[in-house]
Amino acid sequence: MSRLLIIGCGGVAQVAIRKCCQNSEVFTEIMIASRTKSKCDDLKAKLEGKTSTKIETAKVDADNVEELKELISAYKPDAVLNVALPYQDLTIMDACLACGVDYIDTANYECEDTEDPKWRAIYEKRCKELGFTAYFDYSWQWAYQEKFKEAGLTAILGSGFDPGVTSVYSAYALKHYFDEIHTIDILDCNGGDHGYPFATNFNPEINLREVSANGSYWTDGHWVETKPMEWRAQYNFDQVGEKDMYLLHHEEIESIAKNIPGIKRIRFFMTFGQSYLTHMKCLEDVGMLRTENSFTRRRMRYWKRCSWRTSRGFFHPQRNLPTRVFATAIFTMRISSGKGIISAAFWILSLPDMEIRNSISPGRCSGGRGRNSCGPRPSCRRF
Predict the structure, then answer these.
(1) pLDDT tens digit string along 209-235?
(2) pTM
(3) Nearest 5 degrees, angle CA 302-CA 307-CA 308?
(4) Most buried pick, 34, 161, 180, 311, via CB within 10 A?
């Protein structure tokens, strides 16, 4: 039996909430809290009668530590699940520390205002010392290690699909199958076609910032950085077929490099279709992917909200995300060691429906049908 406070009610959050409601013996009570309470109420109405989990809702500004503390103190959860934006990780962690509650999230901290002088100074120092320029990294949250330890609290970071499942599989492989692991390639394939010309498979702003940034990988104890979408490879995914995939920077590279002793190389690849890349290039050309001023960020937020309302173009939680979590997502990890190479494909499949599954329209994750690259083709590597 547990009492869980879930902060966020977007596409990722709604999938997580449904999964909690499918496990009512574990999650006996939940509270859904978001800046827009009506979204929480709508989801509660869809789930009631299909689960024995008791559901409450609340309004909260996840950027406001005092509001968060007031809500946590009033609800008294066993843990807080943060499925809001990565920008809000630190404020929610501060509130959990103040209230003595365990913390869980699915993505590491990223600063929204990349021109903030305090953040910028630390960021530029890290770029010089470590050699990668991604806006997101674990250093800000790892700095809370001693605070949580002294308070007798647990903070589980990156507990989603990737990072999350990928990290668990890596640790499990090392513990049960290998004496040493030398290389890990994580291949994230979005299978199928949702029928829309363009849609991201999680928050549009975060997704586009991640994909349009420089790629990087870990090798022989240091980072090597690449230009955005510079490395293209092809891989024949079981039951999906051959897909183009591109090397990206991803947070579990950082955590796996820290926690898998003797690792020599870690890379992360994700598949993208031609339609997605063409639309992203267009957005980049008109300045919609810039992060260096508040006007651009406000414009991006407004544009995102408009796209959400139309349910076309960007992100539709009932058409895109559930497929990624329940049906067609494939995670393939190639691990090599002194004993040879293992290639394993892991499917994330739906739990028994419990009629909750019926409230989700099965769609497809982002990825177009075309295979030709827009503009000059990057170098292609076949696995």
Answers:
(1) 888 889 999 999 999 999 998 999 999
(2) 0.75
(3) 95
(4) 34
